[in-house]
Model the fold of this input.
Amino acid sequence: MYFEDVSDDLSITTPPVVMKKENMLNFSNELDPLKIHNDPEYAKNTRFGDIIAPGVLTFMSIWAKFVETGFLAKS
Done:
């Protein structure tokens, strides 16, 4: 598949992503140990008010659902 094969009106529907807090914390503790991701006391004083998922984890969770659609395998 090439970029020019993608039309302007393309729409892809994926299943929702469900992320368990325990899995998010395991990921952030090991691979992205910023306090905003794993320290509730620190995070409550941020604009988010609570811990948040690492962006890379969020992206990869959504990417996995996109790949499951088989869209990239189409030619």
Notes: The chain has a mean pLDDT of 91. The domain at 17-73 is CATH 3.10.129.10 (Thiol Ester Dehydrase; Chain A).
